[in-house]
Amino acid sequence: MIKSLRGMNDILNDEEYKRYTYFIQTATKVAKNYGFHFIETPILEETALFKRSVGESSDIVGKEMYQFTDKGGNDVCMRPEGTAGVVRAFIQNKLDRAGGVHRYFYHGAMFRYERPQKGRLRQFHQFGCESFGVASVYEDANMIMMVSDILKELGIGYRLQLNSLGDQNCMPQYRDALVSFIESVESEICEDCKRRKTTNPIRVLDCKNEQCQSLYANAPKLIDSLCEGCQSDFDTLKQILDDNEIAYETDTNLVRGLDYYSKTAFEFVSDNIGSQSAIAGGGRYDRLVEFLDGRATPAVGFAMGIERLLELIVMPQEKRSGYYLGAMDDAAVNFILKLAHQKRQTKKVTCEYKPKNLKNHLKGADKVHARFCCVIGSNELENNTIWIKDLEMKTEQTINIKDF
Ligand code: HAM
After folding, report:
1. What does pTM read for this prediction?
2. What lines the ligand 1 site, CB under 6 Å?
3. Which atom of ligand 1 lies at the shortest distance from residue 278's CA?
4. pLDDT by residue (tens digit) across 301-312?
5. What is the per-residue pLDDT across 30-61, written as a single tens digit (0 to 9) for each?
6. Rounded CA separation 2/295 (Å)
7. Which CATH homologous superfamily contains domain 323-400?
8. What DSSP element (H or E) covers 308?
């Protein structure tokens, strides 16, 4: 038997599909309320796009890409994340040259060859937003408030972790200080961290190895080395979040797994879904557009992991809707079909063709979650009437067909 690939799942029941569409509808509504527009980019892109944006030193590019040569000999890759493609589209369509503010949201499948476990898939789905053209830290706050609004609407609790990764003024100095520190403990750190020291030193800070973690407790902190501009932006961001009653924790080890960030970095985590607890992550990436050959444009964004969120969504109680039409005997079947056809011009109607007794029709109406159960038997047919029960108000009546 041929099975799906490891870490790649089907969605095949109504309940899951309902949750998925409810999430997309809710997140889309919030994104539109914040002035974002839909964008869709291809799943396949040139591998170079991800190497240059997500970064050669990241685990994503180093170990996790679905990369292959296509029939035309092109080096291509199934997107591991959405930001790079949106930035490519932004530049390719010359929007960087148009100036102004451009805000986009997207959702779809992403691919990372990670070790599958609960909450960690090889094909997973993200909902993301990217904003171009606003350098103000108010836009960072806006993005965080958006995620918070989406989670609130879905009934999902969270902890928000916040950090500043500095910019080209303060980051190089910090990096040098960190490298000196790493060298002082180099004999005791893991092989991955030894490699990170040369590729991207700040990534050592989120190493999961316990011995490394205890050593890095004494490492210089990025947050203590911020330049005036980064420090002032970070303080303003925290003030805005305080003013809007959004709780956060500052996590000086939050460096994120992608290389394009500067200044604000954030992650939303849940304590209710096990070890893969990050439900959304994002930050500012002011250098990326320029780095991908566009005109320098400040930018900030986030993405949410849909599969992880689906586990946490509290679904609203579904309201009954529409009509269920049933016949009590053969003679009424043709009549209810005609009636259903008329009613369907404006209303949702479920029609049962098999004659049944009243009790079974009521059960059928309940099963399809109809608001009204409408039944016609020989009596009703003779008198030109229809029996209706309002399953929400629990009232029943017999009315003339012409009033139906
Ligand atoms: P990321 O933190 O790599 O950021 O991914 C965002 C979210 O996608 C994570 O918080 C997690 O919920 C979900 N996720 C990631 N990997 C997996 C996986 N293997 N299985 C299931 N869910 C997963 C980004 O992708 C950036 N592009 C976010 C961003 C947008 N930054 C700026 N703009």
Report:
1. 0.86
2. 81-83, 112, 114, 120-121, 124, 126, 128, 130, 257-258, 278-283, 285, 301-303, 305, 307-308
3. 10
4. 999 999 999 999
5. 999 999 999 999 999 999 999 999 998 889 99
6. 48
7. Anticodon-binding domain (3.40.50.800)
8. helix 306-310
